[in-house]
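Hi support team,

I submitted a single chain yesterday and got back a structure, but I'm not sure I'm reading the token output correctly. Could someone confirm the output below corresponds to the sequence I sent? I've pasted both exactly as they appear in my results page.

Thanks,
R.
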Amino acid sequence: MPKEDAIHVPAQVLSPLGVAAYRMRLSNGYELVAHVTRKLQPIIGAIQPGDTVELELSPFDLSRGRIIGRCGTP
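Hi R., thanks for writing in. Yes, this is the structure output for that exact sequence:
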């Protein structure tokens, strides 16, 4: 899938599921699983429940996503 087709949305971290996977909630209440991209591997320890992050979702599978950044941080 070309990256230009990806959907970018903010989401709230609910809980960690493993080393780099998290349960997330979108603003409409929908819950999904997202993993951290390799580029952001160093911030895994900094992601806590309650944080708001930016997700990249495929329009074909909205149940999984990628964490591509933190919202509200420079």
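A quick pointer for reading it: The CA atoms of residues 15 and 23 lie 5 Å apart. Let us know if anything else looks off.

Best,
Support desk
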